[in-house]
Amino acid sequence: MTISVGDTLPAATFKEKTAEGPVEITTEQLFKGKRVVLFAVPGAFTPTCSLNHLPGFLENREAILARGIDDIAVLAVNDLHVMGAWATASGGIGKIHFLADWDAGFTKAIGMDIDLSAGTLGVRSKRYSMIVDDGVVTALNVEESPGKATVSSAAAILEQL
Hints:
Blueprint: E1 13-18, E2 21-26, H1 27-31, E3 35-41, H2 47-59, H3 61-66, E4 71-76, H4 80-90, E5 97-100, H5 105-109, E6 113-115, E7 123-125, E8 128-133, E9 136-142, H6 154-160
Parallel strand pairs: 3-4, 4-5
Antiparallel strand pairs: 1-2, 3-8, 6-7, 8-9
């Protein structure tokens, strides 16, 4: 079943690499009592993700926060070391959370998994963005193609806020 607007996100635990080392972040810690923008990418360091999707959220971070959002997070089915390296390379450390859904547990639970084995990536996340209010999805934008970042872009989120 794919998550929809009005649904509550399932409980999950992500990994994030911080300056203090690896930490676990639960969905409750991330979403409880907050408005959060969560966007997901098929893979850290992949072309569309690194050149288009992530930069838009980093460049528009302040504008998004100014519209009542408490936090921004990017999620990928990668390990926490890859996500940490991507945070460093992109200049995103301390600006947004770089969450590793290492086993695709959360991604599968919300029905956003996609098999990209033909492109040598294996099971990954579909590209999407959502606005989450206290754990409830209030906006959801899913790309039809993993190689595009238009309906799930930061610009699209700004229009929804």
